[in-house]
Amino acid sequence: MILTIDLGTSATKAAVWNDRGIVNSGRAFLTTVHRGSGTAEQDPATWWPSVVDACAAAGTHCVAAVDAVVFASARQTFVPVSAGGEPVGAALVWSDRRAGAEASDLVASFGGVDAVRGLTGAVLDGAAVAAKVAWLASRQPERLAASTWILSPRDLMAWELTGTLATDTTLASATGLYDFDGREVPELVGAAAAMLPEVVEPDTVIGKVRPEQARILGVRAGIPVVIGAGDRPCEAVGTGASVERPMVAWGTTANVSVPLATLPDPIPRSLAITRSALGGWLLEGGLSGAGSVLAWVAALTGVSLEELGQKAATRPPGAGGLVALPWLGGARAPWWRDDARAGFVGAGFEHGPADLARAVLEAVAYDVARCLDAMVAAGVGPYSLAIGGSAATAPAWTDVLTGVTGLPAVQRRSGEAAMAGAALLASEALGVGFDLDRLDPVQTETTPLPETILRYAELRPSADRTAAAALGLTGALGLTGRVP
C-alpha cells in the first residue's frame, strides 16, 4: 500500500491506496493570511503538524500498513530556510502578488513576456517565484542573508521525513528560475544562487523514513519516500489526461492542462509550459481563483460553503443577469494581470447568494474556456475534458463547465486526482505498476444538454465584453502590477 500526502494551499490531505483505490483518507486545514497589497502568507510551522494530523485522520491502522510514501504539492509557494532546516519568516504562497514591480523589471530586462516564456515556459507576473525572490532581495534582504535554501512545502516536508534535500522537475519548472533544459537562469535566479536544492525526476526514491518521524506519523521506519510532483502534473496523470482530453481541475484555484510530448512552437501567449510528471511537458492555464472565490462569497454572505454550492445549482445559466469577475488576487491565465480585481456586474435587488455563487462558477468556466481556445489555436484539439480536483462544495461545477465549453467530461471515482497520480508515480518507482482504470476508474460521464450549450454561447459575448471592460477600468484606476 502507498501513502500519498498532498500539500495543498487550503489543506493537507493524506490517503492510503492499494491497487484498487483509496483504503482511507484524511485532511487537515491550513490558513493563508491576506493583509492587503497582494499579501498571501502561511506559517511554515503549521505544515508538519498538518501532515501528522492528516495521516492520523487517515487511520493509524491503515497508515501503519503502508509500504511507501509519496508527495503531491502546490507549486510556487516557498520559504527561505536555514542550514539547519528552520524556516526564516513566513512562507510566500503562490497567490502572493507583491512582486509585481519586480516582475515587470525582470520582464523588461529580458525583452518582454514572450522572451521570458520562450526561455523558461513561465509567465513572469507578481506570483512567479523568480519575481518574489527579487522582491525578497530588495525588500527583506535580511531573510535571504539568514537563509541557505529556498524550499517549497513539499521540499521541506520530504527533508523532514528523510533527511534528504531535493526538489523535482515539475516544481522547479514552474518557478521561472530554470530554462527548458533544466538549467538555472542566472539573471532570474539572482539572490537565490546556490540556494536551490538538487532537482530530480518525480519518480525518484529520495530516501527512507527516519525512525523518529516514522513514530510520529505512525508508519514503519525505513520505508521508501518518493519525491512525487506538483499537484497539477499529478492531476494530469491521475485523470488520464491527453491531447484529446485536457485536464480541468477545481480546487483553491482552477487549472486546465494538456500533456505534450514536445514543446509547442510558438507557445500560446496566454498559457505557460511546465514539465510533466511523466516526461514531456504540460501546456497549462493556471487561473487565479475558483474554490477560494466561492469561499469568499460564503464568508461575505454568511451562507455555508456547502449550502452556497447547493444554491448555485438551483439557478439557471446566466445567474439572472449577474456577471462575476473572479480575480480577487489578480488575474492569471489567460489574462496575466496583477492589477485585476474581482467584482460583480449587473447586480440588482433581486439577486442573492445563489446568484453570486452561480456567477462565480460561470466566470471560472469562461476563463477555462478562454484557455481552451488558446490551446485550440495552438493546434491542440480537445474532444472532451477530464475533471480533476474535488468540487464537492460546488455540485453545479461540472454542468456549468461542460455547458460553457460545449465539451463532455469524465470524472473518476476518488475525486482525488492529484493523490491518484502520485500513487501511480510511486507504484512505478517501486516496480509495482498500478493501473489507473483499476486504481481510480471513471465513474461519471457528463454530456451537456444542447440547450445549455446554446444558452452559454449566447451569454459568453457579454461575459467577454464585461471582462475586457473591467480590465480596462482597472488600468484607468492606476493600479500597479500589470505584466507588459
SS class: alpha/beta
Radius of gyration of CA atoms, rounded to a whole number: 21 Å
Helical content band: 25-40%
Characterize the largest beta sheet: strand count, sense, and whether it forms a barrel.
Answer: 7 strands, mixed
| First-residue to last-residue Cα separation | 49 Å
* Number of beta strands: 21
Strands of the largest sheet, in order across it? 15-16-14-13-19-20-21
Rounded mean pLDDT is 94
Question: Which segments are poorly predicted (pLDDT under 50) over 5 or more consecutive residues?
Answer: 476-484
Report on this structure.
The chain is of the alpha/beta class and about 475 residues long. The protein has helices at about 45-55, 60-65, 100-110, 115-120, 130-140, 140-145, 155-160, 170-175, 185-190, 210-215, 230-240, 290-300, 305-310, 355-375, 395-405, 415-430, 435-440, 450-475; strands at about 1-5, 10-20, 20-30, 40, 70-75, 80, 90, 150, 165-170, 200, 205-210, 225-230, 245-250, 255-260, 270-275, 280-285, 325, 345, 385-390, 410, 440-445. α14 packs across α15 and α15 (about 395-405) packs across α18 (about 450-475). The chain is globular, with a radius of gyration of 21 Å. It starts with a strand and ends in an 8-residue tail after the last helix.
